[in-house]
């Protein structure tokens, strides 16, 4: 438990001073409860049970006032301590969420292919919420409860010293160590069950996320019933694991109470036979009761801690995932990049799946290089290695003679503009979506880029975009057609004006009229730049001066159209097939 507690105290370490001050206030509250309250009760009951009623009015008022005073002190300490500790807890969770989010921005693409989006969302939202509850629960109880126990035990010691026959009542405290055993057993169980519960919640969120992104397909293929069934099954799994946590969490309290009640019974028997006076006995009973209640709360505390540990482990998995593509210690300074790219015997595998084998190629400044080959041959993989979305497994890639791994990632990616087949737009205005190409671009520059991409006309057309450049495009650009989205993406590339362009069949979503227009724009854009076109249709390659033919992860041939057509059988057959269709 101490190890687990350390994790949480570590999370609170940014607010050490606040925590220390709050803990001091909590200790006062605990000691006042355990020591002061019991003492007050002793005085009160001794006076009320006595036949002798000769106290002066001021003495009576003094005793009567002692309780409100005690509770005012207690109230101030408890409130201030809880407020400050909650502040530290919530602020720590805020910074943890922010750290997890920042980490996610750095993680390699491969991480997202092996993780599920819904589960990641669940870790950042649901698991951090559990942690938040744990932190505030710990904050409320970590000091108050032990302080209450210490105060009460000291009071018992004080009473035993003052009264004959009372020291045997210490026997009642034997119940305390006995209670530790069920607490330990239950907390281990809770930690495992809570982890399972959070995993089920992650799976449920993932199911939901997938369902929401496939709303069109679900309707098109009449999958509603299948989706309902799957979601209901997930809900049932979550329910079962939640109930297991509930069983152990709430089973602990009664077990501790039964052990504690035995202690109270022993106290009664000892007190009765030893003739302990009524007032003293009442306060002893209260001290024992407070001690057991505090122990019970510590039991709940341990179970909360276990739940928190289970969630923390899921969050820590993100924080501890290696960022294997990182900046070098002494990066090369990139200046006036020309765009000469060379692949030197490059191999790459996705896990154990080889995707590129011993690929060597030179793509010089100004080359328009088309990557062609059958599906799965390695074209996209080849292009994805240039912006270091993945690092090569073997060999090296150079830009203007420098190994890509010797450059700062941001410097390298600043030299590259990408237009993908299915461009992603953010739920923001058209202006801001284009500005992603270069974040410091002025509105005028954004509009000029849109003109170059033949996007300005549809953006200015009120029927398409009622607020022009200020029109919000919806999630993933839902309010725009495929062709319009692609022209926005092309406008981004114009704005970026990078020396290297990667086009993933960039004109595939355009109708023949816009395709012709964009082709003119692309011709202007590519001038003097190094261009990689992942070509799925051969119509795209007519402007390429260099064609790389891929087959089963290997480069089968490199050359211009005419030479490849005459000497490369694979290229000839692919080209003829396309012409025929
Ligand atoms: N993220 C991934 N994880 C595992 N394997 C992958 C991944 N991406 C691609 N592959 C595999 O790597 C190989 C090359 O894929 P790649 O996407 O580079 O081919 P491609 O030529 O671009 O195909 P297409 O024309 O169909 O897009 C294929 O066997 C593919 O299954």
UniProtKB/TrEMBL annotation:
One of its GO terms (cellular component) is plasma membrane. Residues 341-577 form the ABC transporter domain. PROSITE patterns: ABC_TM1F, ABC_TRANSPORTER_1, ABC_TRANSPORTER_2. Residues 69-307 form the ABC transmembrane type-1 domain. InterPro entries: AAA+_ATPase (IPR003593), ABC1_TM_dom (IPR011527), ABC1_TM_sf (IPR036640), ABC_transporter-like_ATP-bd (IPR003439), ABC_transporter-like_CS (IPR017871), P-loop_NTPase (IPR027417), Type_1_exporter (IPR039421). Its main location: membrane. GO terms for molecular function: ABC-type transporter activity; ATP binding; ATP hydrolysis activity; ATPase-coupled lipid transmembrane transporter activity. It is found in: Cell membrane. Keywords: ATP-binding, Membrane, Nucleotide-binding, Transmembrane, Transmembrane helix. The chain crosses the membrane at residues 20-40, 60-85, 142-160, 166-183, 276-295. It comes from the Bacteria. It is a multi-pass membrane protein. SUPFAM superfamilies: ABC transporter transmembrane region, P-loop containing nucleoside triphosphate hydrolases. PANTHER family: ATP-BINDING CASSETTE SUB-FAMILY B, ATP-BINDING CASSETTE SUB-FAMILY B MEMBER 6. This is ABC transporter ATP-binding protein.
